[in-house]
Design goal:
single chain, 169 residues, eight-stranded antiparallel barrel, globular
Length: 169
């Protein structure tokens, strides 16, 4: 019975966090790594997880190296979907709004692609992404280029998972 009560309490807490996510505003604290945090005062516009994603690397000079090209489908709890692809770009599958962004900071993650803070450089269309100014890639898993030798021009796609947080005004 105690375990059931604990599970219910955890589920209720998760529901409250999910329901209130659009009202969250970021404020920096000394305990956080400042380099991958968005500028203070921005609101969290959405949290998405990678359902299926790959980072594709091209062999140059006998090794797979950066930059990689992403290809992923992102999902949130409200059944919103985003297509993430080269550019890097993110496009809402519901309304077609599109952003491209550039890396501002990276934080290494052992055995995975780095966590990132990206700044939006261009917007296209009206919709859920039209007010996004920054994107965080957090909680990364996998996606690292193979360390094996390769033939120049050869491509390899490596599965990855991550959470993407979209920030804006």
């Amino acid at each position: 019975m105690r375990t059931l009560k604990r599970k219910i309490a955890v589920a209720a807490a998760a529901a409250v966090v999910t329901a209130g996510i659009s009202a969250v505003t970021y404020n920096a604290s000394a305990a956080e790594a400042p380099s991958i945090q968005p500028p203070a005062g921005l609101s969290l516009l959405g949290m998405f997880v990678v359902g299926d994603g790959t980072q594709t690397y091209t062999c140059a000079g006998g090794k797979f190296a950066d930059p990689s090209v992403p290809e992923a489908r992102l999902y949130d709890g409200a059944n919103r979907k985003i297509h993430h692809f080269g550019g890097p770009s993110w496009q809402s599958e519901a309304d077609g709004s599109l952003v491209t962004a550039a890396k501002v900071y990276a934080s290494p993650v052992p055995g995975a692609i780095p966590e990132l803070l990206l700044e939006v450089k261009s917007h296209s269309g009206q919709g859920m992404l039209s007010t996004v100014t920054h994107i965080q890639r957090m909680n990364t898993w996998g996606g690292v280029a193979p360390a094996t030798a390769c033939t120049d021009g050869e491509k390899v796609s490596v599965p990855y998972k991550a959470n993407y947080l979209f920030w804006g005004n």
